[in-house]
Amino acid sequence: MMPKKLTFDTLKSRVKAGEIDTILVCLVDMQGRLMGKRFVAQHFVDSAYEETHCCNYLLATDLDMATPDGYASTSWQSGYGDYVMKPDLDTLRPVPWLEGTAMVICDVLDHHTHAPVPHSPRAVLKKQLARLDALGFDAAMATELEFFLFEKSYDDIRKSGFRDLAPISGYNEDYHIFQTTKEEHVMRPIRNHLYAAGIPVENSKGEAEAGQEELNIKYDAPLNCADHHTIAKHAIKEIAWQNGHAATFLPKWHHERVGSSSHIHQSLWKDGKSAFYDPDAPHGMSDLMRQYMAGLIKYAPDVTYFLAPYVNSYKRFQKGTFAPTGTVWSIDNRTAGFRLCGENTKSVRVECRVGGSDLNPYLAMATQLAAGIAGIEEKLKLQPPLTGDAYENSGGAQLPATLRDAMVTLKGSDMLRAALGDDVVDHYYRCAEWEQDDFDRVVTDYEIARGFEKA
C-alpha cells in the first residue's frame, strides 16, 4: 500500500478533533531549503489556505540569509516587497516527527500580478514540464539522498568551530548491516516518519564511508520527486537533531573522505508506456532515449552549476571516488557521468551521477529536462558508450572543475537562456557569483598552515 498524504477535508477534520494544531506553510528557496511560517491550524483551514505572504528577499539570499546586491528581481533600492505564497493543497501531509503538525508547500507568485515568480525553483521545474507536455511526454524521476551522520549535535559542532568532526561510525559501512544497526535510532524514524508523511521511501543503507548514509525514495513525477527530496532532506536534519546528532549534506566535508552525491534517475513516458524502451534496439534504447541522452551529455557543462552550486561542490569531483569528472556515458559503469540502468528492460533509464548532495532538486531536474529536450529537438546523435575506466578516458568532454568555471559556462549558455529565460539564468548567475566572491575574500586555515612559516 502506498503512503497517503492529507486531503484538505481530512485536515479540517483532524484540526477539529484537536489532532493537528500547527501547519508549516513553506516555500522552497534557491538553496532548496524550506522557508515559511507556522500557522495556527484553525486559522489556516479557515482562511490562510488560500494564500499568505513573505518578503521577496527569500529568493535572493545566500546560505547565511545575507542580502547581496545585484539581483534584478529585488533589492534595497526597490524596498524588498512581498511575494504571495500560494499553498499547493495537493502537497498537504502530516509531519509525524513533530507533534500535532502538518505541512504544505507553496508556489511563489508576484504580489501584484499573481503570476508565478519565474526564478522560484518550483516555477523553473514547472516550465520545463510544460515544455515536455507540449512534446507529448511525461517524465519519471528519482533522486538518491546521500549524507553523513556525526556523533555530536549541531550545537556542539558549531561551538567547536566545526573542528574534530567525528562520524557516527568508525569505518566504511557500505551495505553494512551490523554498523547500520547501531544507527537505527536515527535511521529508523527517518524511514518510518517520512513514509507516514506520504513519501514513498523504499530503503536506507550504509554508504561508502564511515558515517555515510543513503536514503532511496520511489520514482515519481518530477514535481512530486522534488517535493519528496526537499522534505526528506529537511526531515533528516530535524530527526538527527532530535536524537542528539548532526547530519550534513555538504558534498565533501573532509578531503580524505568520500563525497556525498545525489544521483538523478530519469526516463520519459507516453500514454503510460516508457518512451525510452525499444525491445528491438541495442540495449533496449529507443531513438528518443538516445537523443535525450545525447542532450544530457552535450549540455552537461551548461547545467553543472545546478548540480554543483557551491565552491565545496567541486571538491567532490576527483579521480577514483565514484564522482565523475567527464561527460561520457556507460552501461552500468559507475565511473562515468551518465550511466545506463535497466539495460534491455522496460525500466531502462539514465542515471546522472554528476549532482552532489547539496543540489536543489527542482533546479537540477529542470535543467536535466532542458538538456534532454534540447537533445530531442536537435535530433542529436549519441556516441558509443564508454567501456573501462572513465577516469582514464580522455575522449569525452570534461565537467567544469570549479564553481567559477561552471558559472561562466552558465552565463554563456544559449540553451539555458532559451529554455529558462534570460532573467532566470542571470538570477542564478548572480547567486553563483556571490558564492564565489564570498569564498575568495576568506583566508583559509589551509593557506595559513601551508605558508605561515614556509612562504
Descriptive notes:
With 455 residues, the protein is an alpha+beta fold. The protein folds into two domains: 110 residues, Glutamine synthetase, N-terminal domain (Ubiquitin-like (UB roll)), CATH 3.10.20; 320 residues, Creatine Kinase, Chain A, domain 2 (2-Layer Sandwich). The protein is built from 14 helices and 14 strands. Strands 6, 7, 8, 9, 10, 11, 12, 13 and 14 form a nine-stranded mixed β-sheet that branches. A five-stranded mixed β-sheet has the order 2-1-5-4-3. The model has no long low-confidence stretch (mean pLDDT 94). Keywords: ATP-binding, Ligase, Nitrogen fixation, Nucleotide-binding. InterPro entries: Gln_synt_N (IPR008147), Gln_synt_N_sf (IPR036651), Gln_synth/guanido_kin_cat_dom (IPR014746), Gln_synth_cat_dom (IPR008146). It comes from Litoreibacter janthinus.
